[in-house]
Design brief:
Layout lengths: L7 H11 L3 E4 L5 E4 L2 E2 L2 H9 L3 E3 L8 E6 L1 H6 L8
Helix pairs in contact: 1-2
């Protein structure tokens, strides 16, 4: 996992994803919405590149799909490991 200093903004985005309030726009530079509002692009890209969040399912270009935490993303928030 790439090294990323987690800021309050990153943590807030991860929490929104954990709460099911976030969607990822499938594109060359994925964007994220929380409660229907676009998030900070840089922070979103940081989290995606670091492997802390991902689209919950495959999507076609331009489609908004639910965002999901990765195992590492859950660990940042101190969430217990989900059983596979």
């Amino acid at each position: 996992m790439p090294t990323l200093t987690i800021t309050a903004r990153h943590r807030s985005i991860l929490l929104a994803v954990a709460q099911g309030r976030a969607k990822v726009a499938a594109s060359g530079y994925p964007d994220l919405t929380v409660d229907g509002r676009w998030c900070d692009h840089g922070a979103t890209w940081d989290l995606l590149r670091a492997g802390l969040l991902r689209p919950a399912r495959p999507a076609t270009r331009g489609e908004l799909v639910p965002a999901a935490l990765t195992e590492d993303g859950g660990a940042v928030l101190g969430l217990p490991h989900a059983a596979a």
